[in-house]
Fold these 3 entries.
Entry 1:
Amino acid sequence: MHIIRYLMLIRFNIRYLINISRKEYKMEDINLLEKIARISGEYRRLFHRVLEESGYKGIKGGGRILHHLVRADGMSQKELALRMDVRPQSLTGVLEKLENAGMIERKRSSTDKREQQVFITDKGRGDCEKLIEIRKQTASKLLEALEDADKQKLGDILERIIH
């Protein structure tokens, strides 16, 4: 599971690095970065396929929000946007859908009436647990060709790249 997180963390920067630095990197380096980006894309496609096969009918973008709320329930909408690295306005529509589906509740802060706090409901927790299981299935399918020792080694290498 850690390998997938590492891949997702570096995926967004890879395309940028490839585009701005074609002259600075050896071609082998560029090819390696492109392979990492392809693995990340394959994970995303496989995840959506497994999601569809499971019959899960969630809200696009909602899983990430639920995951953050499970770890830190009751944070402000602004804090949630910061943790997800998105603009607060980008969350509004998804939060509204999640609220209408009964997965979250938004309440005005008792200390600052301009601020909204976001809370996960029991239904939201249940959906988050389903999504975690689907992510585990997806990771297992994607990495099934690797032995445990290879996974550990790859995770260590990706960790060095990230940090």
Entry 2:
Amino acid sequence: MNMAAYCTVSDLIDRMPEEDIIALSNDDETPTINNSRVTAAISDASEFIDGFLRGVYDLPLATVPVIIKGLCISLVIYKLYLRRFAGDSEGIPETVAENNKMARADLISIQRGIIKLDTGNANTDQGMFLTDKNGMEEFADSILNKF
């Protein structure tokens, strides 16, 4: 499986204070980001995103669209907060929880084709469209008029 990471630790630092990332990822007293925890959260979020893109876009994406990077960052931040608060969503700031919900809703919209990514590698073979090839009616008008 060719899975790409849709954001980096630097992207997270651009979005929130580094001290917050340290507090969310590191359980000891050292004032450093626990890169393995953050990288694992990025990997999990990226795979989650791929689950929505699979079958709609050819993976891995040739380039990471800005929207996908932003969605990944939101999912990672939520995941880090969830880890810090041991799965208790009560400790998660409302804006972080709302961004997570919006990211998931956007992924559903991308999957359904409501939001289209400019990647150049959309999968156009997604299902079939069936038509009546012989031109005959399936149901006579006398039957259809009863409804």
Entry 3:
Amino acid sequence: MNTFKVWQDKQTRNNIIDMVLRRELTRGFTLLEVILTMGILLFAICGILSSYVLCATLVTTSKNVNIATNAALGLAEEIRSSSFTRIIDDYNGLVFTVNDIPQSRGVVYVDDDNPELLKVVISVCWLQGNRVVGEDLNLNGWLDAGEDSNGNGIIDSTVQLTTLIANR
């Protein structure tokens, strides 16, 4: 019954409500909680941004691989349409550039161990950012000392086509 009388007293009831509201309104985050939250958010944002940069690099790489592959395929078709007797003289050791990729070099190797079946290898290397894609580190189209990492005697690259052409 005493409790009921307290609530009936308007002044006491207002004081209790004010006290509860004041406690609710003055509650907040501590400095430590804010700093910890900011650190977590910063870590997450850095991860997202680094993923974005990596994706942009992968898009550029994909684009360059596509362009280099199309250029190599075009050259392979040109070689296939050439006279069989002229392929070695016209294309063996041919160094070319891919117009749509700045600082790029391609090279053609023709293996004539079998005079009736030529093995044609077309490799394309290019500079992307700070690194060279392929073994031709100085992009001159020639295999220099220290460039042949697998010791096969030809410039290898991500874009490397091999085809056999028979004497018809």
